[in-house]
Amino acid sequence: MNKVVSIDVTAVSEVVSCEEIKGQAAFAKKCNEALHDGSGKGNDFLGWLNLPSSITAADLDEIEATAQALRNKCEVVVVVGIGGSYLGARAVIDALSNAFDWLQTNRKNPVVLYAGNNIGEDYISELTAYLNDKSFGIINISKSGTTTEPALAFRLLKAQLEKKVGKEEARSRIVAVTDAARGALFSSAKKEGYKMFVIPDNVGGRYSVLTPVGLLPIAVAGFDIRKIVEGAAYMEKQTAPDVPFEQNISEIYAATRSELYKKGKKIEILANFNPKLHYIGEWWKQLYGESEGKENKGIFNASVDFTADLHSMGQWIQEGERSIFETVISIENPNQKVEVPTDEENLDGLNFLTAKRVDYVNKMAELGTQLAHVDGGVPNIKISVPQLKEEYIGQLIYFFEKACGISGYMLGVNPFDQPGVEAYKKNMFALLNKPGFEKEHEAIQKRLK
Length: 449
Ligand code: PA5
Fold this sequence. Notes:
Layout: E1 6-8, H1 18-23, H2 25-37, H3 51-54, H4 57-73, E2 76-80, H5 87-96, E3 111-115, H6 121-131, E4 136-142, H7 148-165, H8 167-172, E5 174-178, H9 184-192, E6 195-198, H10 212-220, H11 225-238, H12 249-262, E7 267-272, H13 278-292, E8 300-305, H14 313-319, E9 324-333, H15 358-375, E10 380-387, H16 390-411, H17 422-432, H18 438-448
Parallel strand pairs: 2-3, 2-4, 4-5, 5-6, 7-8, 7-9, 9-10
Antiparallel strand pairs: 1-10
Helix pairs in contact: 2-12, 2-16, 4-10, 5-10, 5-13, 11-16, 12-16, 13-16, 17-18
The structure holds 5-phosphoarabinonic acid (PA5).
5-phosphoarabinonic acid is lined by residues 82-85, 142-144, 147, 150, 204-206, 290, 418.
């Protein structure tokens, strides 16, 4: 590939020296090797490691054909899922989409909407009202097939679709993405005869964007999933353990984060200077937060959208408690070109920018922010992405996933489980008096009295 995603960690040097990062090289490599030889924690969830190089042309054909069938029938496709079952797709679709495409009446791509990632009654009510006069389809994604939020949303949407187009036609507009043999979604999909895709057993939700979980909605939205996979496959090679540390951007990122954490930098803020990357931040937070935050350890992950958040959280970042570091995703080249026009009266005083590109102003904001934050005691890591195009997004995804696996091992935790997520579910089921939770129901009622 001509252009590649790259990393620059020189702006952490006031807190962590180059030598200290290099001092972590052998350990980062050992952790990378442990991922590849399966000797680390959670080694039954390593299927994501070689997804890009192992996905077949037939797999991609099937995803594209299913996406095309939905595209042919639907103005709107609702992706039902939560956590790893929707964030990757949403991150990629938002990053690649024209921000105003969904407002166009003569779109060539269906609008992709999301449900099952919250339990907001107003949200689902407004969504179903919007869908009333639309021709729509559903991609229902749940690995376990038993998660409450998507199950509830799917029940409502399925009933609406069946009422609107009849049971048989509804069947042709519903696709299930789930486990190969278990769970309520698997059973209902089998019974109803929905088109089904399998999430491999050894791929956890937050590492599943390069399976049909992410690729099917992305293809429905009209993007080239082959290029995404191609970019990810390139990064799979570039982050393999046999690539020297100095060229291995996932190992460098993991080693730098690990050193910063040891120096008391407990919060990492992922910043972008492009509103299309908001959901990349949401996906990244889930990937790292759920992978590392356990055993009372782990960097807390936050994200900001600049320059908007420079006018809110920017104050805290510049002068608040010095427990943070910042990772900036920088898009080298925009896809469009807009120059600042001249204005005879110059009432806004902006003529000094005449004929400059808007992106030039953005880049100066980015550089000015980096310098200010470093001066304010916030170490800065820069991830450069050549352009918002499928192949680079594929590279970025794999880079972050690989670094997350290495980081988790460097921290000494299992980056592939999420035991803490069960606590709220147990209480919610007890409160709802779900069958099987009778004892917990009694106990929680007593506690609340
Ligand atoms: O990363 C994970 O494993 C989780 O975030 C899951 O993706 C999320 O809880 C949804 O689970 P499921 O796909 O089983 O509905």
